[in-house]
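so my prof wants the structure for this chain in the tokens format not the other one, which i didnt know existed until like an hour ago. anyway here's the sequence
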Amino acid sequence: MIAPRDAFNSSIFHVRINDHGRISCMGSNLDQEARLGLACMSDLFLGALLFAAVQTTALDAQICISEYLPELRYINQRVPIHHLASHSTGYLPPCVEFQNIDDLMGWFSAHTPAFSAGETVDYTRLEAGLLTAILERVLGDSIEHLLERWLFAPAGIGGSWSISRSPTGIPRMDMSLVQVELLAQYIKSPDFFDGRLADALQSRTATIDITRHVLSPTHPVAYGWGLALFRSGMWGVNGFSSQHPVGLRFDIASSFVMTAAVQEQPALRDLILDQMGRRHRPASTLRQAGAGWGSVRGLDAQDLPGRYTGSEENVVNVTLASDRLDFELCGRGREPTRFSTRLDQDTIVGDLKWSLRGEFFPHLQTKRPCLVLGIKSFVKEEP
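here's what i got, hopefully its the right format
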């Protein structure tokens, strides 16, 4: 059961649950029709549009990116399109403000992926720019018109909404959470290509596991079709706009849909969505979390210490003293985050207040130690 609103110092803007047509709102001091910047929640729209394009045979999600974007020849011949919607292309892009889509494609064409496609997940919205470019070329219209015709109008989304673009063409949605809820109800219903998206999600078609073992009660355990699968067994997506963290969860097997918007703290959003999702789902359906804070797979303890580099100039320094494993997470423009854990054979035991969870594993080809931390991937540098 979730705590009363005043326990959060009035920081809940909006928590809305729609289950079997019964709508309940908690702590809502937000206008139900207020437009919010959805930020990364916009992945939901691109994933659903990609699925629609596949169902109409306009494109094949198993075909490599370069078939539809010839500018991305050579390296990208090994990256199927569906990995763009699963954040699993294997690329670790830099923290760079690309000036336009051509610059973005130029970077992807000039660099090799750090991982094989599907080997691991690294969340970055830059790949949404490539997916948008493919959808516009194949379907022959702007992303704004495509979303309106294929998703918003059939879902009954009226009222006020808007789409802006980043310099690389990434859509930025402004929409009310009630409208997001309508879209979620539509894409998992039989009205959306006979319910095939729901079937694909349930069968885990074209989804990629983030870690080999489920470690976190709140972080997603897989990505696919622009959506994340959470330990509660629900699908959804999170966003963190300049306004506040927002989130969506829905249950494929029922009418349950929930949206939330909070002030400043993504951890509070995750807590609300996870607790309410777990309350809705029977305990037997929950994906069981692994013991401890993280795990080590296929590596020895002495392999772990070192400097690990990831996308967007993120770096993790790992040190080992006896059975103590220390982490220092560094990123451009922010103070380092430090925390300590204890290594117990292949389990990393730590303070569960840290929302990040970790897993060490060997690179598929080079066997070099790698690390998944949260929803970011890292490769250990050579000494």
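also thought this was worth mentioning. Confidence is low (pLDDT under 50) at residues 1-10.
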